[in-house]
Amino acid sequence: MAPAALWRLAEPPAPRGPPGGLQSAGVGSNGFPPSQLRRRRRGRSSAEHSNDTNTEDLSSLENSLSPWEEWFICKEKELRARFQAQAMEAMHKEMEKIKEDEEREKKKIIAAEKHKEWVQRKNEEEKRERERKLSKEMAEKAAKELKKAQSKEKAREVYLEWLKKKNTEEVQKKKDEKVCLIPVCHFKKK
């Protein structure tokens, strides 16, 4: 707002008439003689008159106002404009807030979806890891069982070999004993 207009807001303007508030004869409340006002009104074209009926009513109303009333109306217009600006600003802020809330909700939904996908991938990965571990454990267990079975088989073979050897030795020993039991003299006669 211009500095010159600020002083107008602070206090109502002084009346236009002569000192003491009395109006001189022949001068209207707006400062123009009534004959001049009539001439000004008559000077309009008929097209303007038909198009601007409301404007003329307003201007004639404004022309008949006192300076204090003009000041008061000016203040009211300024207040109305200020309130409208505040209302517009509040509406814009509300719309921005709604927009931000919608964006936040979209981001929440996207984040929830991403988290859900991440949890699903993590669970699948853990499941594969468990299956891999189980498979590895089963393979190790099978390898141990095979090794144990092979070891048992080898021990059995060693035992059978030993038993066979022992039996062979016993048979040999018995043969040797039989040979020893035959008198030596029998051999000499021949």
What is the rounded Rg?
Answer: 61 Å
Choose one word for the global shape. Answer: rod-shaped
Structural class: mainly alpha
Main beta sheet: strand number and arrangement?
Answer: none
Q: What features would you describe in this structure?
A:
With 190 residues, the chain is mainly α. It has a domain at 67-148. The chain is 82% helix and 0% strand. It is rod-shaped, with a radius of gyration of 61 Å.
Concise overview:
The chain has 190 residues and is mainly alpha-helical. The chain has 6 helices and no strands. It has a domain at 67-148.
Main features:
single chain, 190 residues, mainly alpha, 6 helices, rod-shaped, coiled coil, CCDC34/181, CCDC34
Helix and strand topology:
Elements: H1 3-10, H2 34-42, H3 46-51, H4 53-63, H5 67-181, H6 184-189
